[in-house]
Amino acid sequence: MYVAVKGGERAIENAHRMLAEERRGDRQVPELSLAQIDQQLGLAVDRVMTEGSLHDRELAALAVKQSRGDLIEAIFLLRAYRTTLPRLGVSLPVDTGRMVLLRRISATFKDLPGGQILGPTFDYTHRLLDFDLAEPAESQPEPPPPAMRSGPPAESLPRVVELLDREGLIETESPGDDRGPVGDLTRDALTFPAGRDVRLQNLARGDEGFLLAMGYATQRGYGRNHPFAGEIRMGEVAVELVPEELGFAIEIATITVTECQMVNQFRGSGATAPQFTRGYGLTFGGSERKAMAMALVDRALRGRELGEEPVSPPQDEEFVLSHSDNVEASGFVQHLKLPHYVDFQAELVLVRDLRAGHRASDRR
Amino acid sequence: MSRVEERPLLGVRGLGKRYGAQTGCLDVGFDLWPGEVLGVVGESGSGKTTVLNCLSGRVAADAGRVEYAARDGRIVDVLGLDESARRRLLRSEWGIVHQNPRDGLRMGVTAGANVGERLMALGARHYGQIRGLALDWLAQVEIDLDRIDDLPETFSGGMLQRLQIARTLVTGPRLVLMDEPTGGLDVSVQARLLDLLRGLVAELDLSAVIVTHDLAVARLLAHRLIVMRGGEAVESGLTDQVLDDPQHPYTQLLVSSVLHP
Amino acid sequence: MNQYNFAYLDEHTKRMIRRAILKAVAVPGYQVPFGSREMPLSYGWGTGGVQVTASVIGPDDVLKVIDQGADDTTNAVSIRKFFERTAAVRPTTRTDEATLIQTRHRIPETPLQAGQILVLQVPIPEPLRWLEPREAETRKMHALEEYGVMYVRLYEDITRHGKVAQTYEYPVLVNGRYLMRPSPIPKFDNPKLDGNPALLLFGAGREKRIYAVPPHTRVRSLDFDDHPFEVEHWDRPCALCGARGVFLDEIIVDDKGGRLFVCSDTDFCARRQADGGAGGDRP
């Protein structure tokens, strides 16, 4: 005698318990601390903060731990937490011109005021697994401190883009309606066509892999815009807020960001002198690959306002912005795991019916 | 013309469009009367397509006024319409036949669905009747009836164009804009299509603006002509008069350079 | 969970969502964009429905949550637990007892009453989406009532299969004006939308749209005069309670392909059995 299956609730509780065990793993192995994740898996934390749209290293580290290293799951956790936080105010735009630089490079000039500062980059490492890292560092001696940098203080180095700007060689960022409200993707639904403010927010939160692929596609001819890395900066910036009661700005935090300014395909005609165009990328921490991909895609999506015919997916605003959010994408892709048997039953009824129709007409 | 009307179906004054420093068209004007076919002729770059695109709203005109006498008697300021109203006009009282039939068809649905779509958009709700009308129209444009359930992908160029014409005319538009309707077709296929168009225009009492570089097409289909060059209308008049007795030197050049069999 | 507001969302967000709901009720079938929030559930798993429910639920509400018609499917359990934790409302499995019902893919067999609210979970709100991928274009089509392309789709089905091949998410015209996608309910449930005395709310979290069918609104499934809309039927009753004219789930009971058909609506079936309804075929 068939009895309808029960016990879904208990199944879920058991699944959660099993998940907790898997998360902890072998209890002989020391448990991860949030400090370890923050310090030694810093780039994972950076990515989770960037795509989670929340700067809090400790919370991001917790999310990484809770998600067992699945970064999209961690981003989801951070976003869901963010929803519950009250909004206290809006900061002033961060001034990356006053950044305390850890890293600053440009591909457009051989040398520039302040020099090329490499910083802590993987770029010139040889990708050979370093088996020294397999042993904890306590057994190794303290390495000598890095050589002190000489030259002008890092905060005062001019931007490459500004150097081009002084000659009028690069388009000035249109101030647009600078006094108008900046859109907020976390508050209002995205509508098309989208303004650049909302586009950049979408890209900043967007999945690094997706943007990387889209940016890569532009380099391979799908909406090519001839990019040069004008400047990439990574370092500390102040976050400032003007409280109503005070009427002047106070510094509430310093955070590390990575900024990428691409110098792209010039445009101009007989009527207007040619200028280079721009693409922009900004991320928390050292997420440089993401900042560069973001700048490539930003420029591709600006095609409409620069009079370029959109011929490929990276230039298609609806396509890029609708599919860049990995929390949305992950949810919808994985929702296929949910029961769909009622709709499937409806399809079965139809297909059986149509097949019966076929057999009937075959017999005739 | 079979009706006497007090005012033209379409009145165009001072139509102008610039593309940066380039002139698309300049100060073009004409009246189109009910049942009349107007040919806009010229070489490529003459501005004839720009005129059509300004009328259909595909590009925004910079200057001019276009008045259309609607079915309900109102005078519509065509250039002043917002996008909603313009789309509604193009769906109901006007029709467009594109040079490339693929631009005017749904390639992914059957021929029958292509012809029936405008009917369904206007509220037709009987499958059998829609299909019946589609069959009638396929017959009218001389497409084999048993192609009704075929996808347009399987049609030849001439058949595609005839299908597009059926799709456009099925709801009885009062004004049809045609852009090089026989462009890209073989000569014999063109001849057959022109014959068909001529018959339909007469039978349905259509008004049309036909853009073409081919004077033979103009002679066969149009009652009156406008000759365009460098964005401006250099001559206009009855087709036979303009082609047999051209006054403007450019028209004379155009007429004389047509190969005669 | 006492550090969270009642029903998880803050009051400002609830107000924003309620405004969207009011707009939706004022224009039946029209998709209202809303600032969908990141929720603790995955997109695609009911965040829209949860946000709508969270915005209208009050401490005196009695909440029922079903998925595929059953109270005990894993996602229904998960959502019901979420509201038990964040809103401490009384849960129920009885359709006739609930004031608020959140559902995925089914409308309960027990007829709804005036005063009840049904919240349906929607994955893709736009009925024209498969015919026109661009949002900017579909918005215009709704504004201009350019629905011809949907009838073209039905025409093609009839041409190819002899009948319309859409079996769930069957498109409807609401209040004679807006084309609507009624969420992935089987077409069997479409007639329940028409003139329902309850308030029907539809939430799409990922796509960020809310729409509504107010009580006693005309909802017509699209069809042709000579190919009228028809629903599924089974040639046997529910094997457990004997009911006919209800949606049945097909259950495979052995590896020789033996199968049973039972009510998809578990509450309806359980109560019929309790009331002594006779079963049909037994394995």
Q: Please summarize the sheet with the most strands of chain B.
A: 6 strands, mixed
Order of helices and strands of chain C: HEHEHEEEHHEEEEEEEH
- Count the beta strands of chain C: 12
- Which two chains form the greatest contact, residue counts included? A-C, 49 and 69 residues
Parts with pLDDT < 50 across at least 5 consecutive residues of chain C: 279-283
The structural class of chain C is: alpha/beta
Strand content of chain C: 15-25%
Strand ordering within the main sheet of chain C: 1-9-8-5-4-2-3
Task: Report the β-strand fraction of chain B as a percent range.
Answer: 15-25%
Q: Can you write the helix and strand succession of chain B as a string? A: EEEHEEHEHHHEHEHEEHH
Rounded average pLDDT of chain C: 92
Largest sheet of chain C: 7 strands, mixed
Shape, per Cα inertia axes of chain B: globular
What structural class results from the helix and strand content of chain B?
A: alpha/beta
> Uncertain spans of chain B, ≥5 residues at pLDDT below 50?
none
Give the tally of β-strands of chain B: 10
Estimated radius of gyration of chain C: 19 Å
> How much helix is in the residues of chain B?
25-40%
Strand order of the largest sheet of chain B: 6-7-8-3-9-10
Question: With helices defined by DSSP (H or I, 4 residues minimum), what is the helix count of chain C?
Answer: 6
Helix content of chain C: 25-40%
